């Protein structure tokens, strides 16, 4: 169970709000430099995806096979990242669930986790030691059958098999620092609302997965902006600040290599998204139909 939780912790880091423009309804993008034949690719992933929906279109396959480096948000093949994420997902030293969670929420959260979700006593004892923002993917894994490991793991496994270099755009420590800007109080309140409205939340997530399968960025935007996945704090840290930090690493790599960049779809569009930021730096970024 510990390995599963650690992996789901890393997947949580991409749950961000899309700000898509109507004329940019693509998830796969070509990145070119003026006066250069070198091409890299940017692909928006989703981490909540059923196994049957993880498909590789001919365009996506061509983009990946034409690249010699794989860039992911975090290099999940690096065991150091996995171990560090597991450690930093724990509540701060000296804190317990009973101390950190508002009294008014404790009984309802425990009841829903055990009676509704089906968490065992031993699982609950372990989860109580973890920051509540990381409970959500574990619960979704229980509520939604046949979830896949996502595109990130798919491409990572292919890269490892083919001995292709994998580069993380950030370390797990850097990603966790962004997560920690969301207060524990906000995290517990978010989770209590999420679990209380689980049926509608699961329905929204199912709609989200369908929209992603159909490559409907406008629908993805609409769902996420009204979803319980949204939080009142930490948006800039989780999305915009990370985009700007990643850009500093992406630019020198795509100037020298053919890269396939796979990051959460919420990081692509918008004025502070990777597409706009790359264009501001003079790159030609063009959507590819799948």
Question: Which terms summarize this structure?
Answer:
6 strands, alpha/beta, 290 residues, disordered N terminus, 14 helices, 6-stranded mixed β-sheet, 52% helix
Characterization of this structure:
With 290 residues, the chain is of the alpha/beta class. The protein has one domain (2-288). It is built from 14 helices and 6 strands. The protein has helices at residues 2-12, 58-65, 79-88, 97-100, 103-117, 121-127, 135-143, 150-161, 172-179, 184-196, 198-213, 217-225, 235-256, 274-280; strands at residues 28-32, 39-45, 69-72, 165-168, 259-264, 284-288. The protein has a 6-stranded mixed beta sheet with strand order 4-3-5-2-1-6, sandwiched between helices. α1 packs across α3 and α5 packs across α10 (184-196). The longest helix is centred in the C-terminal third of the chain and has 22 residues, at 235-256.
